[in-house]
Predict the structure.
Amino acid sequence: MDKGKISAKSLELEDNEIVCPSCNSILTLPEDMINDEIIQCPECYADFINPFVDNPKILICEYCGVAGLLPIGDENALTVECGECGQTINNTYSDRYIPIVCPFCKIQSYVLDEHKQERYLNCTSCGERFKNPLRN
Ligand SMILES: [Zn+2]
Ligand SMILES: [Zn+2]
Ligand SMILES: [Zn+2]
């Protein structure tokens, strides 16, 4: 099945039906789960973000891959601890992280507020060094 077919099919879904991005099963979301930020697929047990919830503050742990919800009150903490594996992960929702796109690999990464006046930045994905576009 290609992706085009899946999205065409999703247009015919009922109000509370969603498609699991891992196994493509069509799931009916129970009323009491409509506002849950993370849904677990009963077929393949993959966690994914509930498309019915607007702007959930979800962080995906770069160590174990588990999606977790940012705890209320920790929105501006620089790092948070993964509830699954205990590793410290960057909280990119913090006001102190400024999104920046690497001119080499085009991947979005972040620069810390206190580093935004530095002349050069290193991309965290490809390691290339580039002129800081935020600097004035
Ligand atoms: Zn699934
Ligand atoms: Zn983890
Ligand atoms: Zn890069």
Observations:
- Residues 58-90 form one domain.
- The chain is about 5% helix and 30% strand.
- Helices lie at 3-10.
- Residues 3-10 form the longest helix (8 residues).
